[in-house]
Every structure is written in structure tokens, then in C-alpha cells.
Inverse folding.
């Protein structure tokens, strides 16, 4: 029977209180903090950071130097590009108003949620608390300050929806009457009141 244990590079720092799923690979200099849960068949790239209590689903890819701060939640099949940052503080400060160094007791962490199949492009910043919808695509370098709908392609600073994308990641082609098709899979999508849904055929 083949060994499907996680593969952890010798230079990676995986806290013994973290959980890492079968078949997951954690590369050089990555750090997975206490209480984090990383699912099965994931890839955690060189220098990536996964904070305490972060939850990562199955078959996710977290690329080099991405910073996933707690309490982020990534559902299955999420792609996080190189040097992406998920923030976790409404009002970031190093010190309290009286000049003392802030501690964990001086702030309440807020997280980024990324739904199934969504992708975050290189060097994008997601400012918590936001939710990235299912199969959405955040363009490289974008700054996300508001929730992203399912299947939306967002870009810019701040990020705004510029297209719809399908599950294959390609921009959808408009067919009229609020219907869209994927040029790769031929899947059909219908837009109703600004919400896009896949038509199960």
C-alpha cells in the first residue's frame, strides 16, 4: 500500500499542534502555526505562512510567500497566488492609545473566507472581513475591500467586477437574454439580478 503521508520539507516549520492532511506537500521555509488545519492533497509553497487556527480545505494551492493570517477559511480547491496577503485587523496599530505595545487581548481578529474553487492572483491583498465567492477570480495586484460574488472576475484598487468567469477560469461569453457560456467547457450560466448561477444540464 503506497505511503500517502504529508511531505514536509526539512526547513519548513509545522507546529505539532497543526493538522496536515494526507498527500499534502509543504515546501521550504513555509510555516504552519498551531491549530491550523490543512486538508488533503494541498500544496503549501516556499515561504508561505498559515496562521494559528486557519482552516484550509482539500486540494488547495497556496503559492510562495503567501500570507494567510488567522482566522481565514479556505474551502476546497482554492488557489492563492504568490505573495498574496489576507489581512485580519479592522484597525491595525502596533501600540495602544497610551503607547503600550498591543497584545492579542487588545484586538479582535477578523478573517477572509474563500469559497470553493476561487482563485486569488499574485500579490493581491484581501482586506478582512471579506468573502470571495465560489469559482471567483481576483486579478493579480488587486485590493479586495468588499465581498466578491460567485463566478466574478474582479480587478483593480479597489477591486471591482469586470467580467464573469466559469469553473474553468476563462471569461464567459455573453449569449444574450442574461445567459453566458464557457468557451472551454460549454457550460451554461444564467444571470439574475446580478447573480450568476451555473445551469446543471
Amino acid at each position: 500500500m503506497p505511503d500517502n503521508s504529508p511531505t514536509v520539507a526539512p526547513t519548513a516549520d509545522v507546529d505539532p499542534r497543526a493538522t496536515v492532511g494526507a498527500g499534502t506537500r509543504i515546501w521550504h521555509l513555509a510555516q504552519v502555526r498551531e491549530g491550523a488545519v490543512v486538508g488533503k492533497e494541498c500544496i503549501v509553497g516556499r515561504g508561505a505562512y498559515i496562521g494559528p487556527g486557519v482552516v484550509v480545505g482539500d486540494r488547495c494551492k497556496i503559492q510562495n510567500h503567501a500570507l494567510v493570517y488567522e482566522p481565514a477559511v479556505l474551502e476546497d480547491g482554492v488557489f492563492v497566488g504568490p505573495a498574496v496577503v489576507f489581512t485580519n485587523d479592522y484597525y491595525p496599530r502596533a501600540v495602544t492609545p497610551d503607547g503600550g505595545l498591543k497584545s492579542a487581548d487588545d484586538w479582535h481578529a477578523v478573517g477572509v473566507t474563500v469559497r470553493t474553487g476561487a482563485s486569488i492572483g499574485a500579490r493581491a491583498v484581501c482586506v478582512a472581513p471579506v468573502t470571495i465567492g465560489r469559482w471567483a477570480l481576483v486579478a493579480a495586484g488587486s485590493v479586495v475591500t468588499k465581498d466578491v460574488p460567485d463566478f466574478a472576475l474582479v480587478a483593480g484598487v479597489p477591486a471591482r467586477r469586470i467580467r464573469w468567469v466559469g469553473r474553468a477560469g476563462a471569461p464567459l461569453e455573453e449569449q444574450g437574454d442574461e445567459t453566458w457560456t464557457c468557451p472551454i467547457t460549454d457550460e451554461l450560466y444564467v444571470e439574475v439580478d446580478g447573480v450568476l448561477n451555473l445551469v446543471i444540464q
Summary: The chain has two domains: 7-165, 169-201. The two ends are 38 Å apart (CA to CA).
